[in-house]
Amino acid sequence: MSVPALTLYHNPQSRSAGARVLLEALGVDYAVVPIDFASGQNRTPEFLAINPLGKLPTLVHDGAVVTEQVAITIYLADRFSAGKLAPALDDPLRGPYLRWLAFYGACFEPALVDHAYKREPVVPSAAPYRDYDTVIDMVATQLARGPWLLGERFTAADVLWGTALRWTTGFGIVPKLPAITGYIERASALPAFVRAGEKDAALMAELSAASAAG
Protein backbone atom coordinates (compact mmCIF):
# COMPACT_ATOMS: atom_id res chain seq x y z
CA MET A 1 0.00 0.00 0.00
CA SER A 2 1.52 3.33 -1.08
CA VAL A 3 1.98 6.14 1.42
CA PRO A 4 0.37 9.47 0.39
CA ALA A 5 2.89 12.08 -0.65
CA LEU A 6 0.77 14.79 1.01
CA THR A 7 0.58 14.99 4.78
CA LEU A 8 -1.54 17.54 6.62
CA TYR A 9 -0.79 18.25 10.28
CA HIS A 10 -4.26 19.06 11.44
CA ASN A 11 -6.69 19.92 14.18
CA PRO A 12 -10.31 20.61 13.20
CA GLN A 13 -10.46 23.49 15.68
CA SER A 14 -7.79 25.46 13.88
CA ARG A 15 -7.04 27.21 10.61
CA SER A 16 -6.13 23.86 9.08
CA ALA A 17 -9.85 23.16 8.66
CA GLY A 18 -9.73 25.06 5.37
CA ALA A 19 -6.75 23.10 4.13
CA ARG A 20 -8.63 19.87 4.70
CA VAL A 21 -11.64 21.15 2.75
CA LEU A 22 -9.35 22.11 -0.11
CA LEU A 23 -7.71 18.68 -0.16
CA GLU A 24 -11.17 17.13 -0.30
CA ALA A 25 -12.18 19.47 -3.12
CA LEU A 26 -9.06 18.55 -5.08
CA GLY A 27 -9.72 14.84 -4.66
CA VAL A 28 -6.09 14.02 -3.93
CA ASP A 29 -4.78 11.29 -1.68
CA TYR A 30 -3.48 12.69 1.60
CA ALA A 31 -2.66 11.62 5.12
CA VAL A 32 -3.59 13.44 8.31
CA VAL A 33 -1.40 13.70 11.38
CA PRO A 34 -3.68 14.82 14.23
CA ILE A 35 -2.28 17.53 16.47
CA ASP A 36 -3.84 17.56 19.92
CA PHE A 37 -3.54 21.02 21.43
CA ALA A 38 -4.68 19.80 24.86
CA SER A 39 -1.63 17.59 25.22
CA GLY A 40 0.71 20.15 23.65
CA GLN A 41 1.52 18.20 20.50
CA ASN A 42 1.98 21.46 18.63
CA ARG A 43 4.85 22.37 20.97
CA THR A 44 6.83 19.14 20.84
CA PRO A 45 10.40 19.25 19.50
CA GLU A 46 9.34 16.95 16.67
CA PHE A 47 6.61 19.27 15.42
CA LEU A 48 8.60 22.45 16.05
CA ALA A 49 11.35 20.99 13.86
CA ILE A 50 8.79 21.02 11.03
CA ASN A 51 7.11 24.33 11.85
CA PRO A 52 8.99 26.41 14.44
CA LEU A 53 5.89 28.55 15.06
CA GLY A 54 3.98 25.51 16.24
CA LYS A 55 1.04 26.55 14.07
CA LEU A 56 -1.49 24.89 11.80
CA PRO A 57 -2.01 24.29 8.97
CA THR A 58 1.29 22.66 8.18
CA LEU A 59 1.59 20.65 4.99
CA VAL A 60 4.41 18.36 3.87
CA HIS A 61 4.57 17.33 0.23
CA ASP A 62 7.33 14.97 -0.86
CA GLY A 63 9.50 16.28 1.97
CA ALA A 64 8.86 19.98 1.27
CA VAL A 65 7.19 21.92 4.10
CA VAL A 66 4.50 24.45 3.22
CA THR A 67 2.93 26.61 5.93
CA GLU A 68 0.61 29.66 6.03
CA GLN A 69 -2.98 29.35 4.86
CA VAL A 70 -2.60 31.49 1.77
CA ALA A 71 0.59 29.74 0.64
CA ILE A 72 -1.00 26.32 1.09
CA THR A 73 -4.08 27.43 -0.86
CA ILE A 74 -2.01 28.73 -3.77
CA TYR A 75 0.34 25.76 -3.74
CA LEU A 76 -2.29 23.03 -3.67
CA ALA A 77 -4.63 24.65 -6.17
CA ASP A 78 -1.83 25.40 -8.65
CA ARG A 79 -0.22 22.00 -8.21
CA PHE A 80 -3.35 19.86 -8.42
CA SER A 81 -6.05 21.98 -10.04
CA ALA A 82 -4.46 24.62 -12.26
CA GLY A 83 -7.06 26.20 -14.52
CA LYS A 84 -9.95 24.86 -12.44
CA LEU A 85 -9.90 25.83 -8.76
CA ALA A 86 -6.98 28.14 -9.55
CA PRO A 87 -7.29 30.51 -12.54
CA ALA A 88 -4.44 29.97 -14.98
CA LEU A 89 -1.65 32.52 -15.26
CA ASP A 90 -3.17 34.02 -18.41
CA ASP A 91 -6.74 33.97 -17.08
CA PRO A 92 -8.21 37.47 -16.49
CA LEU A 93 -9.39 36.25 -13.07
CA ARG A 94 -5.85 35.34 -11.95
CA GLY A 95 -5.16 38.85 -10.66
CA PRO A 96 -8.42 39.19 -8.68
CA TYR A 97 -7.93 35.65 -7.36
CA LEU A 98 -4.47 36.50 -6.00
CA ARG A 99 -5.72 39.85 -4.75
CA TRP A 100 -8.33 38.27 -2.49
CA LEU A 101 -5.97 35.59 -1.26
CA ALA A 102 -3.41 38.24 -0.33
CA PHE A 103 -6.12 40.44 1.17
CA TYR A 104 -7.07 37.59 3.48
CA GLY A 105 -3.59 37.27 4.99
CA ALA A 106 -2.47 40.90 4.81
CA CYS A 107 -5.68 42.70 5.75
CA PHE A 108 -8.51 40.48 6.98
CA GLU A 109 -6.72 38.49 9.68
CA PRO A 110 -4.74 41.43 11.12
CA ALA A 111 -7.88 43.57 11.23
CA LEU A 112 -9.78 40.81 13.03
CA VAL A 113 -7.04 40.39 15.63
CA ASP A 114 -7.08 44.13 16.30
CA HIS A 115 -10.87 44.07 16.62
CA ALA A 116 -10.95 41.00 18.87
CA TYR A 117 -8.38 42.50 21.24
CA LYS A 118 -10.01 45.94 21.10
CA ARG A 119 -6.92 47.66 19.78
CA GLU A 120 -7.33 51.22 18.60
CA PRO A 121 -6.74 51.56 14.84
CA VAL A 122 -3.60 53.35 13.79
CA VAL A 123 -3.76 56.34 11.48
CA PRO A 124 -5.05 55.25 8.03
CA SER A 125 -1.86 56.32 6.27
CA ALA A 126 0.15 53.85 8.37
CA ALA A 127 -2.25 50.87 8.37
CA PRO A 128 -1.88 48.44 5.46
CA TYR A 129 -5.58 47.55 5.80
CA ARG A 130 -6.95 50.94 6.96
CA ASP A 131 -9.32 49.65 9.69
CA TYR A 132 -11.63 46.79 10.67
CA ASP A 133 -14.86 48.40 9.46
CA THR A 134 -13.40 49.13 6.03
CA VAL A 135 -12.14 45.55 5.70
CA ILE A 136 -15.52 44.05 6.62
CA ASP A 137 -17.33 46.43 4.27
CA MET A 138 -15.01 45.45 1.41
CA VAL A 139 -15.59 41.75 2.00
CA ALA A 140 -19.38 42.10 2.28
CA THR A 141 -19.54 44.28 -0.85
CA GLN A 142 -17.51 41.77 -2.85
CA LEU A 143 -19.59 38.81 -1.68
CA ALA A 144 -22.85 40.61 -2.48
CA ARG A 145 -21.86 40.39 -6.15
CA GLY A 146 -21.82 36.58 -5.69
CA PRO A 147 -22.52 33.84 -5.69
CA TRP A 148 -18.78 33.41 -5.16
CA LEU A 149 -15.86 35.66 -4.37
CA LEU A 150 -15.02 36.09 -8.07
CA GLY A 151 -18.61 36.10 -9.25
CA GLU A 152 -19.93 33.00 -11.00
CA ARG A 153 -16.70 31.04 -10.69
CA PHE A 154 -15.88 28.99 -7.60
CA THR A 155 -12.15 28.86 -6.80
CA ALA A 156 -9.81 27.75 -4.04
CA ALA A 157 -10.13 31.27 -2.65
CA ASP A 158 -13.72 30.39 -1.73
CA VAL A 159 -12.49 27.44 0.30
CA LEU A 160 -10.23 29.75 2.29
CA TRP A 161 -12.82 32.48 2.75
CA GLY A 162 -15.75 30.13 3.24
CA THR A 163 -14.13 28.26 6.12
CA ALA A 164 -12.68 31.43 7.65
CA LEU A 165 -15.96 33.33 7.60
CA ARG A 166 -17.87 30.37 9.00
CA TRP A 167 -15.38 30.22 11.86
CA THR A 168 -15.18 33.95 12.57
CA THR A 169 -18.92 34.63 12.40
CA GLY A 170 -19.41 31.71 14.78
CA PHE A 171 -17.17 33.47 17.30
CA GLY A 172 -18.82 36.83 16.72
CA ILE A 173 -15.65 38.44 15.37
CA VAL A 174 -17.29 39.06 11.99
CA PRO A 175 -20.87 40.34 11.80
CA LYS A 176 -23.53 38.08 10.29
CA LEU A 177 -24.38 40.34 7.39
CA PRO A 178 -26.73 38.88 4.74
CA ALA A 179 -24.06 38.77 2.04
CA ILE A 180 -21.67 36.95 4.39
CA THR A 181 -24.16 34.45 5.83
CA GLY A 182 -25.53 33.61 2.39
CA TYR A 183 -22.01 32.97 1.15
CA ILE A 184 -21.25 30.72 4.12
CA GLU A 185 -24.43 28.72 3.51
CA ARG A 186 -23.57 28.17 -0.16
CA ALA A 187 -20.03 27.09 0.64
CA SER A 188 -21.01 24.84 3.55
CA ALA A 189 -23.43 22.90 1.35
CA LEU A 190 -20.72 21.89 -1.14
CA PRO A 191 -19.66 18.20 -1.06
CA ALA A 192 -16.05 18.95 -0.10
CA PHE A 193 -17.15 21.01 2.90
CA VAL A 194 -19.58 18.29 3.97
CA ARG A 195 -17.01 15.50 3.61
CA ALA A 196 -14.37 17.45 5.51
CA GLY A 197 -16.87 18.24 8.25
CA GLU A 198 -17.79 14.59 8.68
CA LYS A 199 -14.15 13.51 8.82
CA ASP A 200 -13.31 16.28 11.26
CA ALA A 201 -16.21 15.33 13.53
CA ALA A 202 -14.85 11.79 13.68
CA LEU A 203 -11.32 13.09 14.34
CA MET A 204 -12.52 15.34 17.17
CA ALA A 205 -14.26 12.36 18.75
CA GLU A 206 -11.01 10.40 18.58
CA LEU A 207 -9.02 13.27 20.11
CA SER A 208 -11.56 13.71 22.88
CA ALA A 209 -11.54 9.97 23.66
CA ALA A 210 -7.75 9.90 23.75
CA SER A 211 -7.67 12.92 26.05
CA ALA A 212 -10.23 11.36 28.41
CA ALA A 213 -8.29 8.10 28.50
CA GLY A 214 -5.02 9.57 29.25
From TrEMBL:
GO MF term set: transferase activity
Protein name: Glutathione S-transferase family protein
SUPFAM superfamilies documented for this protein: GST C-terminal domain-like, Thioredoxin-like
Key words, A-Z: Transferase
Domain of life: Bacteria
Keyword Transferase: yes
PROSITE patterns linked: GST_NTER (PS50404)
PANTHER family: GLUTATHIONE S-TRANSFERASE FAMILY PROTEIN (PTHR44051:SF21), GLUTATHIONE S-TRANSFERASE-RELATED (PTHR44051)
Listed InterPro entries: Glutathione-S-Trfase_C_sf, Glutathione_S-Trfase, Glutathione_S-Trfase_N, Thioredoxin-like_sf
Residue span(s) of domain GST N-terminal: 3-84
